[in-house]
C-alpha cells in the first residue's frame, strides 16, 4: 500500500496581514472580488461573468493534498481589515521553480498590499524555490511595478490568453533568483 503525500501549506505572518491557506468560508469574498470585471480582466484564468460552481471547484482544488498550486488568502483580520483582501499563489514548476500569481480586491488597490504580499511570499519562500517567475499584462503597469519593487527582474515579452477578455494579451515576464 502506497502512502499518499500530504502537502502542508505554511501560514506566512506579517504585521499587517497573514497569508493563510484557503478555506470554504472564503468562497463568498473570492466570488465577490474575483467576479469584478476589473479584477478578472487582469488575470489569465478568471472568466467574466463568472459561471456557477467555479469558485467552489477552485477552493476544492486549492485544499487538495495533491495540489500543484498553493493558494493563500491575504487575510487582514489581524489589523481590522477583511478576512480576504486578495489571493496570492505559487504554481509549482520543475527544477525548484514556481510561478507567482496574485490579485488584490479593488478596495485595497494603491495601498501597497500587493507589494507587501509578494515580498512576504518571496521572503518566506515556502516551497524552497531557487527561482520564482511572474508575468503581468502590459496594460497593467501597476502590477509590473509590484514585481520590480520586490526585486524581480524583467525577462522579456510574451503573451497569454485572458479568459475574461477572450483574447491573447501581451505580457511582461519577470524572474527572481532566490
Describe the structure.
By secondary structure, the chain is of the alpha+beta class. It has five helices and eight strands; from the N terminus they run ββαααβββαβαββ. It has helices spanning 27-34, 37-40, 54-63, 113-124, 141-149; strands at residues 12-13, 18-21, 69-75, 86-92, 97-104, 131-137, 153-162, 167-177. Strands 1-2-3-4-5-6-8-7 form an eight-stranded mixed beta sheet, with helices on both faces. Strand 7 (153-162) and strand 8 (167-177) form a beta hairpin. The relative contact order is 0.17.
In short:
With 178 residues, the protein is an alpha+beta fold. Helix content is 24%, strand content 31%.
Q: Give Rg in angstroms.
A: 16 Å
What is the string of helix and strand elements?
EEHHHEEEHEHEE
Helix content, binned percent: 10-25%
Strand content: 25-35%
Mean pLDDT, to the nearest integer, reads: 95
Oligomer description:
single chain
Annotate the secondary structure layout:
Blueprint lengths: L11 E2 L4 E4 L5 H8 L2 H4 L13 H10 L5 E7 L10 E7 L4 E8 L8 H12 L6 E7 L3 H9 L3 E10 L4 E11 L1
Parallel strand pairs: 5-6
Antiparallel strand pairs: 1-2, 2-3, 3-4, 4-5, 6-8, 7-8
Features:
178 residues, alpha+beta, 8-stranded mixed sheet, 5 helices
